[in-house]
Design the sequence.
């Protein structure tokens, strides 16, 4: 079991999203979280932008981990988005982003929050895992990969 095991369900996976820029991607994430945890989509975008204003959450290699702290949220919530076409995201390597894993966490930082971010970063740093995520065509397949990543390492 890894820190991501209980975070992802097929209904929080969006494949081939048509976002043309960061604002579109954040708006789509807002809609996913609105359905998943009942947070207002506009508020989600504000939380994500507040963190992004501190510095890009792009890691390089075409991936980013936009995240934010949410007042009143009891448990972490996550969503996965694969974009139809890569977008500019101020990545350290200059590469456009096509895979985003969004994370919302309770306002108070916890060890769990850090473990989740670390697990996501490790997952996205694994070139085999990235390739599987990029080529996935089914939300259930993505969900299983995210939930079980690292269990066989």
Sequence:
């Amino acid at each position: 079991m890894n820190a991501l095991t209980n975070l992802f369900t097929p209904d929080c996976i969006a494949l081939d999203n048509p976002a043309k820029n960061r604002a579109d991607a954040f708006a789509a994430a807002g809609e996913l979280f609105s359905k998943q945890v009942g947070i207002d989509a506009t508020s989600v975008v504000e939380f994500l932008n507040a963190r992004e204003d501190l510095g890009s959450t792009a890691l390089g290699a075409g991936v980013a981990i936009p995240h934010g702290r949410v007042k009143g949220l009891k448990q972490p919530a996550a969503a996965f988005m694969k974009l139809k076409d890569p977008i500019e995201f101020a990545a350290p390597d200059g590469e456009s982003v096509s895979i985003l894993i969004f994370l919302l966490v309770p306002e108070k930082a916890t060890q769990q929050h850090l473990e989740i971010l670390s697990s996501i970063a490790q997952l996205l740093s694994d070139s085999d895992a990235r390739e599987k995520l990029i080529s996935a065509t089914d939300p259930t397949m993505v969900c299983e990969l995210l939930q079980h990543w690292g269990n066989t390492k």
